[in-house]
Amino acid sequence: MTDGVGVAGIYVRDQDEALAFYVEKLGFVVHTDAKNGEFRWLTVQHPDQPGFQLGLFRPGPPMVDKDTADTLDAAVAKGAMPPLVLTVGDCRAADERFAAKGVEFTQEPVSRFGSVDASFRDPSGNGWKLVEAR
Question: Which regions in the chain score pLDDT beneath 50?
C-alpha cells in the first residue's frame, strides 16, 4: 500500500444520473456503491487509474445540514465549483468519442499553452477540462 489521496469527491444533484453519465458516457467503472441509512457512498474509477476513486456525493447529512446542502446544490448547478481535469492522449478524438455518446461540450478543442483542451459539464453542472497530455 502507498500513501496518498485515494478518493476525491464532487457534489452531484442526482447520484443515479451522475453514475449513468460517468459510466456510460465517460467510461468510468463503479468502485463502491453502498448505503448507510440515507447516505450513499458512491465512487467510480477511470479504468486506467485503479488506485484513485472519484466520489459522486449528494450534499447533505451527515456532511452538511439541509440549508448548506441547498446552497451547494445551487453553486454546483451554476458551474461554480473548480473544474476537474481529465487527461487524454488525443483531445480531438476524445471530444468526438464523448460527443457521440451525448456529452455536451461548452468549449470545442482548442490549441493553446502547448497542448489541446476542451470543456464540458456533467449533468449536475460540474465543469471538466479535457486536456491532451503532452
Answer: none
Q: pTM score, two decimals?
A: 0.92
Q: Quick check: 116 and 133 in contact, CB under 8 A?
A: no
Q: Is residue 128 included in any domain, yes or no?
A: yes
Q: What is the pLDDT of residue 38?
A: 87
Tell me if 2 is assigned to some domain.
no
Residue type, 96: E
Q: What is the pLDDT of residues 89-100, one digit of tens each?
A: 999 999 999 999
Number of domains in the chain: 1
Q: Minimal CA–CA distance to 32: which of 19, 49, 13? A: 19
Residue pair 116/51 in contact by the 8 Å Cβ criterion = no
Angstrom distance (rounded) from CA 58 to CA 72:
9
Domain residues for the domain of 25 are 7-132
